[in-house]
Amino acid sequence: MFSARHVEAGSECLYNIISQQYGAEKYRLTKVKGAAMGKGIRVTVWNEGVHEKNNDIVRKLYPKGMGYPIAQYLRKQEGIGPVRISELDQKDQGLSERVLKNADVMTWWGHVAHDRVTDENAARVQQRVLEGMGLVVLHSGHLSKPFTRLMGTGCMLKWREIGERERIWVVDPAHPIADGLPEYIELEHTEMYGEHFDIPQPDQLVFISWFQGGEVFRSGCCWHRGRGKVFYFRPGHETFPIYHNEQVLKVIYNGIRWAAPCGVTKIVRDHFPPIESV
To answer: Which residues share a beta bridge with 186?
Structure first.
C-alpha cells in the first residue's frame, strides 16, 4: 500500500498500474507532462484496406475503412494521444520509418494481402517491437508477416465462416486488458477460429472463446518480445460489424494501454565491465 498522499507518476505504465490497483483519486495521482506523457499514447491503426474496395458488404459496414471506427473510438479515450490510420496502399505501405518511430503502439488488421507486405517492412515492424513499440494484432492478422516473425511459428488454426455465436470468456479477471469488462462478451454472428492455434505458449492468457459449433480458442494472448509487448485479440471478421461493438473496442483500448512502452529505458548487452572492484 502507498503511504504518500501525493504521487507523481512519471510514466503511463506506472500511472496505469497505481490507478487501477489503488485509485488515482484516492492517492491524488498526477501525470508528469513530459514528451510522451503530455501527448498520451501515440497509436497507429494499420489496416490492410483491401476488402473495403472490392466487397459491397464490407464497404457498407465500414464506408471509411475498417480502421476508422477503431481510431474514432480511441480518440475519445483517456490517455490516448495522436491516432493515425495507415493502410497498405499508402506510401511505404503505411509503414515508413517515420510512422513507426512516432508510434508507441500499432494495431494490425490484415487478411488477403499478407504477401503484399514487403519483407523489409515486416522486419521494420518486428524491430520496432523489439525496441519497445507495442503491437496489437487483430483477427486474421495472426498470419501477418510481423506476427509470424515475432512468434516464430506457423500461427495457423481451424476456421469456419457460417455466422455462428461466439462467447469470449475472461479467464484472467485481474489482468489490465480485462479492466472494466463483464465476465464474457457475446457476439451473435462471427467467424469461428478453433484450436489448435500454432503459437508459442502465451506469457499471459486473458480470453478463451467458445463457439456455437463446439470449438474453443485462445482468443486473447499476451507475449513479451525484447522490450516490446504483443497482444493478439481474435474478433474482427470483415463481413460482421465487430468493430462497432463497444466491448470489443474496449478490449482493443485496454490492449493498447497494456502494450504501451514502459519500464527500463536503456538496456546494455554484449561485453560488460564489472560494476564492483574484482
So the answer is: 167
Residue 241: alpha-carbon gap to chain centroid: 19
Whether 264 maps to a domain, the answer reads: no
Q: How far is CA 100 from the centre of its chain?
A: 15
Q: How many domains does the chain have?
A: 2
Q: What is the mean pLDDT of the chain?
A: 89
Which element (helix H / strand E) includes 178?
none
| All cell numbers assigned to 65 | 475503412
Q: Which amino acid is at 218?
A: R
CA dihedral angle for residue 266, residue 272, residue 277, residue 278, rounded to 10 degrees: 150
Contact yes or no for 2/18 (Cβ under 8 A):
yes
Can you give the CATH number for the domain in which 166 is found?
3.40.50.880
CA distance 187 to 248: 9
Is residue 276 domain-resident?
Answer: no
Output the nine-digit C-alpha cell for 115: 504477401
Helix, strand, or coil here: 16?
helix
Which helix (H) or strand (E) segment is 46 a member of? strand 41-47
Task: Name the residue range of residue 18's domain.
Answer: 1-37
Q: 150-163: per-residue pLDDT in tens? A: 999 999 999 999 99
> What type of residue is 92?
D
- Residue of 217, 175, 223, 218 lying closest to 203 (CA atoms): 223
Q: Are residues 110 and 234 in the same domain?
A: yes
Higher-pLDDT residue of 64 and 8 is: 64
